[in-house]
Amino acid sequence: MRLIVKNCKVFGKDTDTIYVEDGKFADKYDESKADRVFDAKGATVLPGLIDMHVHLREPGYEYRETIATGTAAAARGGFTAVCPMPNTDPVCDNPAVVSGILKKAQEAGKCRVYPIGAASKGLAGKELAEIGLMKEAGIVAVSDDGKPIATAGLMRKVLEYASDFDIPVLNHCEDYTIDMEGAMNEGIVSTSIGIKGIPTASEDIMIARDIIIAEYLGLPTHECHVSTKGGMRMIRDAKARGVKVTCETCPHYFTLTDKECESFDSNFKMHPPLRTEEHKQAVIEAIADGTVDCIVTDHAPHHQDEKVIEFSLANNGIVGLESSFALSYTYLVKPGIITMERLMDLMCYNPSKLLGLGRGGMDVGDDADFAVFDLENEFVFDKNKMLTKGRNTPYDGWKLYGETQLTVMGGNITYEKLC
Ligand SMILES: [Zn+2]
Q1: With 80 as the cut, is the pLDDT of residue 165 above it?
Q2: Whole-model pTM?
Q3: How far apart are the CA of 202 and the centre of ligand 1, in A?
């Protein structure tokens, strides 16, 4: 397949045309030799985005999402690589499940999939999973996501064991001994509407624990979906004194607050929960000053029957793959809070580096993974156009910039906006 994308701005390059041949970025060739010429009409080419924290639900929960629908949604969001968390059924805690996921992803052909293995067997928080064997099968990290790595003792073992295999450890930061029954952030809003709250302390305690262990051992830890001011402060301070801690946050933590829960719409319910304006501003500050390493979606599709019910009973999580870039561009780059270079660190280069994926290159000979975004024209985000099976987005009807026009992975078109 020979593909030319013309009339484009190319991130970091002084050219208006890109050439693809045999799955790689290529030197200039004559347009007549191309199988396909895509007119970008002035849109911007960025390196393929990488989301290191998604839930693709397969195996086990195919009624919520499959690897095929999840990766199609990823492609529509401009992603060319995603990392699914292991809380499937069966749990991704052994090499057979890893291989099964990779096979399905290969068959779907929409996006590179780099599985994350469970840190503990069955996510039960008791004994270590088969990390070495899973690494051989293709995992790029371990996590018990959905739950924290249960105890400080287990976290120590996981960090030590995973470091022997050079495998990053990603921890879901909430101490469930504090917030077991809560459904939203604990504060004025939760009190006024009568929903049991989850204190920010729940997240802060887990982040503090991980930093203490990582500093003591001199080993790296990665804190998932950080949403609190205290968490960001501790991570910033720890980094400053040389602790090997990295972290991620999600678009919902810099675009929404717990005020939204007053609507009792369960599309505002997730773990960790939406926080107050003060915490939202702290997340934005941490993105701007370099404390945050990655923006991830925590893409969590659910069936209608699990979401369109009472707020307290609804499942946690929202879909994110198809809104993440546009939200990040509209709310961070457009108002001048960060540069496009910084956004590419957050959504491509840093996740690639952290997980050792070696992605993000756009030089001749590199794998042709890229996406074309319209940064000039506003569009309305429409949940009915989403390719994910989930409909649980809080962003339906939002006016955003940065609609995906085309996504290419390994030289193949994985998404194209139909006019
Ligand atoms: Zn999580």
Answers
A1: yes
A2: 0.98
A3: 13
